[in-house]
């Protein structure tokens, strides 16, 4: 990631972390503790405090919806993220959670999930994936790595060889 992109991401995340903007979604202590432990180092934002357009060209939102923080699929998804959070951090992924349908967050209104759903969005706002079952960080990373934006990032960082010249 380029220095300017890194600084921009840091500024957005710092802004979102101001008092009252970054809060735990789950009120249940056990669900909240599991969720925070599960993604140490990975930015986790509450959907009530996020506007997706604020993340355009800065981060890849991974929005995880459930009707309750006790949904087994939500818990499994958070556990899967815990196994390799560095893979997602390397790809500028920010996790946004929404486990309270009654709160009617702007993110929920825009993406209109049905029960447990995760939506992976690219930096340009394009939806990469929308799935009703948990995915591993390996699967998520592969999906991200196939996008044109990620391929360009890797080329810029010198991690991909340029296309062969005819």
What distinguishing features does this structure have?
5 strands, 166 residues, five-stranded mixed sheet, single chain, globular, 7 helices, Glutaredoxin, alpha/beta
Taken from the alpha-carbon principal axes, the silhouette is: globular
Oligomer: single chain
Going by CATH, the architecture would be: 3-Layer(aba) Sandwich
CATH top level label: Alpha Beta
Going by CATH, the homologous superfamily would be Glutaredoxin
Number of helices: 7
Mean pLDDT across the residues is: 82
- CATH topology value: Glutaredoxin
Q: What is the alpha-carbon Rg in Å?
A: 16 Å
**In angstroms, what separates the terminal alpha carbons?**
29 Å
Low-confidence stretches: 1-31, 33-38
How much of the sequence lies in strands comes to 15-25%
Largest sheet, described in full?
Answer: 5 strands, mixed
| Share in helix | 25-40%
Largest beta sheet: what is the strand line-up? Answer: 1-3-2-4-5
Helices and strands, in order, run as: HHEEHHEHEEHH
Give the structural class: alpha/beta
Our count of domains comes out at: 1
Overall strand count: 5
Report on the architecture of this protein.
The protein has a single domain (3-10, 22-156), classed as 3-Layer(aba) Sandwich (Glutaredoxin), CATH 3.40.30.10. Helix content is 40%, strand content 15%. It contains seven helices and five strands. The chain has helices at residues 3-16, 29-38, 72-83, 85-90, 106-111, 137-145, 148-156; strands at 44-46, 60-65, 93-98, 117-121, 127-131. A five-stranded mixed sheet has the order 1-3-2-4-5. A hairpin with a 5-residue loop joins strand 4 (117-121) and strand 5 (127-131). Helix 2 (29-38) packs parallel to helix 3 (72-83). The longest helix has 14 residues, at 3-16.
């Amino acid at each position: 990631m380029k220095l300017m992109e890194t600084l921009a991401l840091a500024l957005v995340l710092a802004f979102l972390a101001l008092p009252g903007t970054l809060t735990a979604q789950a009120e249940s202590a056990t669900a909240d503790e599991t969720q925070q432990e599960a993604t140490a180092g990975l930015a986790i934002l509450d959907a009530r405090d996020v506007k997706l357009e604020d993340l355009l060209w800065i981060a890849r939102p991974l929005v995880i919806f459930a009707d309750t923080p006790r949904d087994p699929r939500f818990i499994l998804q958070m556990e899967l993220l815990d196994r390799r959070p560095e893979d997602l951090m390397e790809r500028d992924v920010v996790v946004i959670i929404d486990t309270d349908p009654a709160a009617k967050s702007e993110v929920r209104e825009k993406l209109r999930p049905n029960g447990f759903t995760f939506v992976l969005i690219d930096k340009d706002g394009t939806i990469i994936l929308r799935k009703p079952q948990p995915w591993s960080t390996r699967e998520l990373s592969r999906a991200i790595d196939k996008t044109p934006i990620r391929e360009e990032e890797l080329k810029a960082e010198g991690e991909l060889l340029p296309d062969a010249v005819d």
